[in-house]
Amino acid sequence: LIVEDLIELSNPIDEEETLFIYPEGILTNIYLNDLALYKKIFQENFSKNHKIIMGINSLRNEKIYNSLVLLDNELNILDQYNKNKLVPFGEYLPFENIFSKFGLKKITQGYQSFSADDNRDIFEVNNIRFLPLICYEIIYSGKLFNNPDFDIIVNISEDGWFGKSIGPKQHFAHSIFRAVESGKYLLRSANNGIAAIVNPLGVIEQKVKYGKSGYVDFKEAKKTQPTLFSKYGNKIFIILILLYIFIIFSFNRFKNE
């Protein structure tokens, strides 16, 4: 079973406060409500000192969401984030009302499209504040830091559908830029992709190579201050353009005089 492999790889120690971060899509063909099936095995292997982050699909009001959930050792839901930015054709079919009449659907498993949520709350574990990002949400620059009051970025991903293309490596490269922009550590857990710890300078401190099975162990983070980019985002570039125009205008005026 995949769950048994995860537990063996995690090697939980009862006395150690630990947050385990599992990738998106690690448990296939089940929904959030089905996690009760695994309650006993998690109770037997994890203690009250343990928390778990996991990517899983969830149902609400007949809508399907791609979700990141924070769980305790009994699989009780402590917090939940539903993906905001969906992959066109991968997670939803644009103009679905029209194209579905011709038998078209998204290219991933299942017929119904996922629904996008519009809320991304920071969640907290042991006084550490995490910004949750699912899969390709990590590629969006300047739109992730509306609330810069977080300590660490958590990015879970399913990169298996890229196959043997360059996709997983490009996806990981984008995540490094988000760490630098925010001035925060990035913890990335990827299924069939690259798992890593990236520091605020963009240095990869630990990594599980593409196509390999393993884990990275994050024990300590240096406290950092929010960057200008995390505070103002792409507005910085607008200000620079306006400043450039002002300088050119002033220079030409001075030259004419």
Describe the structure.
- The structure is a single chain.
- With 257 residues, the protein is of the alpha/beta class.
- The protein is 25% helix and 25% strand.
- The chain is built from six helices and ten strands; from the N terminus they run H-E-H-E-E-E-H-E-E-E-H-E-E-E-H-H.
- It has helices at residues 2-10, 39-45, 96-99, 167-182, 228-232, 235-256; strands spanning 18-21, 50-60, 63-71, 77-82, 123-125, 128-134, 152-158, 185-191, 195-198, 204-208.
- The strands form two sheets. Strands 5-6-7-8-9-10 form a six-stranded mixed beta sheet, with helices on one face.
- A hairpin with a 5-residue loop joins strand 3 and strand 4 (77-82).
- It is globular.
Q: Would you identify the regions where 5 or more consecutive residues have pLDDT less than 50?
A: none
Succession of helices and strands: HEHEEEHEEEHEEEHH
Number of helical regions: 6
Largest sheet: spatial strand order: 5-6-7-8-9-10
- Class of secondary structure makeup: alpha/beta
Mean pLDDT: 88
Give me the Rg, rounded: 21 Å
**Helicity level:** 10-25%
Portion in strands: 15-25%
Count of beta strands:
10
Largest pleated sheet: 6 strands, mixed
Rounded to the nearest angstrom, the distance between the terminal CA atoms is 80 Å
The dominant shape is globular
